[in-house]
Amino acid sequence: DAGVIQSPRHEVTEMGQEVTLRCKPISGHDYLFWYRQTMMRGLELLIYFNNNVPIDDSGMPEDRFSAKMPNASFSTLKIQPSEPRDSAVYFCASSLALGVSNQPQHFGDGTRLSIL
Amino acid sequence: GENVEQHPSTLSVQEGDSAVIKCTYSDSASNYFPWYKQELGKGPQLIIDIRSNVGEKKDQRIAVTLNKTAKHFSLHITETQPEDSAVYFCAAKGATGKLIFGQGTTLQVKP
How much is the pLDDT for B1? Predict the structure, then answer.
């Protein structure tokens, strides 16, 4: 089975540029999560969607960050304009449900973002 | 707010020995506790999870225990092998429904 697919795997760009990260969740999963991982702060949840609708974006650090999920098989995380402190590994994860069934989250292999 | 503390941050064991990683959570409403293994250049992979109505769960060489009263849960790996070397994360699902992750433990298994 195909897992969560993220692209690109690596991105290097100069500050001020727009960055778009992409994610394809596991087919049939109705929850999608965007995380950021840094040495200092560990794994942080940025935003999550249920059935393509953003549910909680309280982890999005600034207005420079935005996320969309136009359909059940695709999501984007956009940073505009990018800054050096945005350098991190960004993960996308998906799951079947958040409720009492406690379905596990499945992670992609991430996008390593470097802002120069 | 919700918080998960994980210890130790690094752990080095000899091949064949056991490894134990411990986590403490703050939200008493937490009811789901997964453990993830992250290898270099990869995303976290679920290795085992436990729900709050269970005290212990085993899967071959790995086991997880949960003490709800003390708000502690632990990962036990027996007969460690070099391929167990990785970063391990605990997490707890709190009242908000979101997973709160620990800071990670880097496990090194020496052959």
Answer: 67
Which residues from chain A sit within 8 angstroms of residue B45, using beta carbons? 107
A98 CB near a chain B CB, below 8 Å? yes
Quick one: what percent of chain B has pLDDT higher than 70?
A: 99
Contacts of A74 (CB under 8 A, 6+ apart): A22, A23, A24
Minimum-distance CB partner of B34 among A98, A104, A109: A104
**Structure-block tokens of residue A77:** 């995380």
Chain B interface includes A48 (CB < 8 A): yes
Asked whether the predicted pLDDT for residue A92 surpasses 60, the reply is yes
Burial (Cβ within 10 Å: 0-12, 13-18, ≥19) of residue A68 = middle
A57 burial level (CB within 10 Å; 0-12, 13-18, 19+)? middle
